[in-house]
Amino acid sequence: QELGNDVFWEFHDVLFANQTNASGQENMMTQEFLETVLLEVATPEETEQVRSAFVKDGGKEALDHDMGIANSLGVNSTPTIYIDGKAFTGQTLNDFRHMVEEAAKNGK
Length: 108
Prior knowledge:
Elements: H1 5-17, H2 31-38, H3 44-55, H4 59-73, E1 82-83, E2 86-87, H5 93-106
Antiparallel strand pairs: 1-2
């Protein structure tokens, strides 16, 4: 959230590429490890901005907001897909396609 979607996805990719060390053991998800990985895709200033927000628990408000929306919609797992305001509960791609086609017909 602090640095935008592009840097987030770069961080995501580098984080998962570095989740094991040279000996094949999983790296501990410590603050130091995360900052080291973040420095691969962000400037030192941006990394400090993220670290500061983390220490101040800056993401809690955004998380609480998003969880409030999810809870009000009855979302209890990911992914949860809504089509034309209705939760998709089907099991197959054909179920999905049918629901989209019905929504498109009703939208005309």
